[in-house]
Design goal:
alpha+beta; Beta-Lactamase; Helix Hairpins; 3 domains; 6-stranded antiparallel beta sheet; 5-stranded mixed beta sheet; binds adenosine-5'-diphosphate; binds magnesium ion
Length: about 375
């Protein structure tokens, strides 16, 4: 065989191999493209299923990819009528940060609504779920109010008693005042005492009203440390009078709470005043704050005798008091206030002596 015919044979062999390989590839390509078609059809079906599932959900759901809205379910369209697919996702300007983490408030047709927003981020985008919690909050508030009214009902005998003592004393002073033979200095004295009794009755009745009040009236966002400073300022005169120290260890710098300022400050004042009432001159009351991502904590500690064993389980009940001139409403009101801001309060005796009260409140974003 000459050289050229052997080269032609090699070429023919190679060509055969090439044809075989191409045929193989073509077959594989056909199988693969069939698979791709089937997978694409499955994907379309899965997408349809996903969208019909999202559309059936009562909660508002928005799908976002690279910051762009790709799907808005009917509940979300109802909540955010101006939101359209292909637009950039952002929280509406009219929504304001609410009282709890991930909460927003806005006014719709004259009524205030509260929503909670959850965002699940995955590598392909995020799923934003928005739930209208206005009605849940209202039901919760209403049931808390019913509980408080029931507590008041149960306490009606105690209320009558609370009112009777200052009332009958006031009546006594008033009857002295009707005595025409009374010396002017005595008259002045009885008038002053009568005024004192009426003032304490007035305070008692406003405390009772405060106790059954439902929700915070006007909330604003305040740095928690500032609220503690304000409470300390309000008790300054009493502190000096009692000769005690109040030490502030503020460690929640930059954490805001959404509260009705005056109510929260008076709750803190009530707790600090109790500590002043049980401590002796020279003792120290410490108010400490700290925070984590979602909560702030305010701890009030004293060096007093600690909470009496028979008080420890009733501390926050209305009219529970161990003081002769106490109303037992201070801590009951403080707890209501704190709970109406979705926080809580607890107390315990410290092993080293004295009582410790801990207030926890949901915090807003760090500024
Ligand atoms: N720091 C404290 N140390 C010990 N006992 C306390 C302290 N704070 C509160 N208490 C107890 O809790 C009771 C209820 O307090 P409060 O609700 O403020 O009512 P009041 O001050 O009118 O007694 C007090 O009478 C006292 O027995
Ligand atoms: Mg008190």
């Amino acid at each position: 065989m000459n050289e050229s015919s052997s080269a032609a044979l090699d070429l023919a062999g190679a060509f055969d191999l090439f044809v075989q390989a191409s045929q193989q590839l073509e077959k594989q390509h056909a199988v693969l493209s069939h698979k791709v078609d089937a997978l694409s059809a499955d994907l379309v079906k899965a997408n349809l299923r996903l969208h019909s599932l999202l559309d059936a959900l009562p909660a508002a759901v928005i799908l976002v990819e690279q910051g762009i809205v790709t799907h808005v379910n009917p509940a979300a369209r109802q909540l955010l009528p101006q939101l359209v697919t292909s637009s950039v996702w952002r929280v509406p300007d009219t929504w304001m940060a609410g009282e709890g983490p991930n909460e927003y408030q806005f006014v719709e047709q004259g009524s205030r609504r509260t929503v909670q927003m959850q965002q699940i981020v995955n590598p392909h985008g995020s799923v934003i779920q928005i739930q209208d919690i206005t009605d849940n909050l209202r039901t919760l508030e209403e049931s808390e109010r019913v509980d408080r009214l029931a507590a008041m009902g149960k306490m009606s005998a105690a209320i009558a008693h609370q009112l009777r003592t200052p009332l009958s004393t006031a009546l006594l002073y008033a009857s002295h005042l009707t005595n025409v033979d009374l010396a002017p200095t005595d008259q002045q004295d009885f008038a002053r005492r009568l005024q004192g009794q009426l003032l304490s009755l007035n305070k008692l009745s406003s405390n009772m009203l405060q106790f059954i009040r439902t929700r915070p009236l006007k909330t604003g966002q305040w740095p928690v440390d500032d609220l503690v400073r304000e409470a300390a300022q309000s008790v300054e005169a009493l502190r000096q009078e009692r000769g005690m120290s109040l030490s502030l260890e503020l460690g929640a710098q930059g954490y805001l709470v959404s509260v009705e300022k005056s109510s929260l400050v008076s709750a803190l004042v009530g707790i600090i005043e109790n500590a002043f009432q049980v401590c002796s001159a020279g003792q120290v009351i410490v108010v400490r704050t700290d925070s984590d991502a979602a909560h702030v904590r305010i701890v009030i500690e004293d060096e007093g005798p600690g909470i009496a064993p028979d008080m420890i389980d009733h501390l926050f009940d209305p009219f529970a008091t161990s003081r002769i001139s106490g109303t037992g409403l201070g801590l009951a009101i403080a707890r209501n206030t704190i709970r109406s801001h979705r926080g809580d309060i607890a107390a315990h005796n410290r092993p080293e002596g004295g009582a410790s009260f801990t207030v926890v409140l949901p915090s807003l974003e760090h500024f």
